[in-house]
Amino acid sequence: MAKTDTLGQFEQLVLTAILSLREDAYGVTIHTRLQELVRPKAVSLGAVYVTLDRLEDKGFVASWLSDPTPERGGRAKRCYRLEALGERVLQESAVTAKRIWDVIAEVWGKDWAEEWGKRWQKEAG
Amino acid sequence: MAPSKKLEAIVALFIPPAGREHVLGDLHERYENPRQYIQDAARTLPLVIFSRIRRTADTQFLLLEALAVLISFVAAAWLLLEGPLFVNEPSGFLRLLAPVAMALVGLLLGDAYADPRKRSSLRCVQAPLLAVALMFLSQAVLAVMSPAWMLPRWVFVAGAAVSLLLLSAGRMLRRQAGDELRAAPSNGGSSNPHDQIVHKAQEFEKKIRWRNLREYAAAILVIAAFGTYIVIFENPAIRLGSSLIIAAAAYVVWHLHRRGAARDLPAAGGFSACLDFYRAELARQRDLLRSVWLWYVAPFIPGFIVLGLGSAQANPDRSGSFVNAISVALVVLVIVWLNRHGARKLQREIDGLDALEKRVSRE
User: Which of A37, B16, B72, B233 has its CA 20 to 30 A from that of B93?
Assistant: First the structure.
C-alpha cells in the first residue's frame, strides 16, 4: 500500500465517528461523537472540517449535501459515509491498535488490563 | 434560538462559497447566544479557509503560474532596461520575489473563494486580477518602507500586464479542457460501484487527452522557438544546442503518443471489466510518470548544456547565465517532483479500486 494511505490518530477517530453514526454523519454529529471519543480532551469543529476534507481527498470518505432543514436556518447538511478504501484503512488501524493493546497487557500484566477494561466500561456507562 | 441575520451575513462573508452552506448550517445548529456564536465562528473559520486553500491549490499549475510571472518580469527587464540587468545582481533576483509571492497569494485566495457553482468565463480572470492587485499593493508598501527593493516602475507595469495576460490565458485554456480544480466532491451520493468506475474512468480519459494536448502544444512552441534560434544565430554551439532541443521535443511527443495516449473505455462490459480497464490505465500512466526523468527530462539536458555554452561564448559581457541556470534547474526539479507526486496519487487511486473490488465481492 502507498505511504499516503496510513492514518493519523485523529483521522482514525473521525473515521470511527462516521462509522458509528451511519446515516447521520455530518459536521455537528461527527464533532459531538469525537468529543465523546477523545474526552477529556477538546476538539474544535474547524479541525473536524479540515480532517473530513483531507479524508475525502484521500478517497476514504464520500460526501453529499442533504435537504435543507429548519433547525439549521434552512441550510443543508454535508453528510459523510465511509468508502471501501476508508473501511480498509480503518480495519488495518484497528488491528494495529489491538496488537499494541496485547503487547502492553502482556508486559504490564492481566490485572492491569482488567482494571483498565473495567474503567472503560464504567466510563461508557 | 437562532443567530441574527446580520451576524450570519458577516460570518458568511469570510467562509469560502464552497463550504458556506453546511458550515453556516452547522454553526446555526450549535447556536446558544451571540457571544458563543462569534467565538465558535472565530475558532472554526481560519481552519475552514485553510482547508479550502489546501484543496483548491493545484500545486502543479500554481508553480507554472509562478514561473510565468517570474518570466514576465525578467523579460520586461530584459527588453526595457539597458546595460547590466538588475536581475543578475545578487539582490536582483530577490527583488523579483516580492511580486511573485504576492501573485501566488492572490491566486490562492482567488481560487479558494471562487464559487464552484458559477461557470462564468470571468472566473478565469478573477484570481489573476486579485494577484495583480496584490502585486501593486506590495510595491506600494515597499515604496513607503524600503524603496530600494522596488522594481523599476515600467518594468513592474509591463511585467504585471504580461503576467495578467499569461495567467488569464492559462486559466481559460485549462477551463476549456474541463480540467478545473478538483476540489468539489465528484461522486456525490451515488453509491453504485459500476457507475462510479465508469464515471472515474471517463474523467481520467479526458484528463489524459487534455494533458497530452498540452504537451503537444508545448512541444510545437519549443520547436518553433528553437527553430528560430537556428535561423537567427550564427554561433555553431547555439545552433547545435537548439537542434538537440528540437530533437528532444520530437522524441517526447513520440514517446508520449506511444506510451501515454488515452484509451477509450470499452463500450460494453460489467463492473469487473470496467474496473480492470481503469486499473490498467492508471498503472500505465503511473509508470509513465515515475520514469519521467528518463524520457522527458534527460533528452533535453545535452541540448541545454550546449546552448548554455554557446550563449556564454556569444555574449560574454551580458550573460544571463545565472538566471538561466537557476531557471532551468528549478524547472527540472519541479517537473520531476510533480510527476512523482502524480504517480503517488495514481497509486492511491489503484489502492482504492482494490478495496472497492474486495467490498463488492464480499457483498
Answer: B233
Position A73 pLDDT exceeds 80: yes
- Name the strand (E) or helix (H) holding A62: strand A61-65
ipTM above 0.85, yes or no: yes
What's chain B's average pLDDT?
A: 85
Q: Which residue bears the cell 530584459?
A: B78
Residue B348 and residue B272 in contact, taking contact as beta carbons nearer than 8 Å:
no
Are B23 and A57 a contacting pair at CB < 8 A?
A: no
- Looking at the fold, whether B12 and B87 belong to one and the same domain comes out as no
Q: Is some CB atom of chain A closer than 8 A to the CB atom of B48?
A: yes
A3-124 folds as Arc Repressor Mutant, subunit A (1.10.10)
Domain segments of chain A as ranges: 3-124
Most confident among A26-30, B200-204, B265-269, B355-359 (mean pLDDT): A26-30
> Do residue B22 and residue A75 have CB atoms under 8 angstroms apart?
yes
In a domain? residue B44 = yes
Integer Cα distance of A57 and B354 in angstroms: 17
Render pLDDT for B127-179 as a digit per residue (tens, 0 to 9): 999 999 999 999 999 999 988 888 888 889 999 999 999 999 888 877 766 54
Q: Is residue B184 part of a domain?
A: no
- Does B23 contact A27 at a Cβ distance shorter than 8 Å? yes
Domain boundary among B125, B150, B176: B176
Q: What is the total count of domains within chain B?
A: 3
Q: Which of A44, A72, A73 sits opposite B44 (nearest CB)?
A: A44
Among partner residues A27, A59, A65, which is closest to B352 by beta-carbon distance? A59
Please answer whether residues B155 and B77 qualify as being in contact, where contact means their C-beta atoms are separated by less than 8 angstroms.
yes
* Whether A84 and B29 lie within 8 Å, measured CB to CB: no
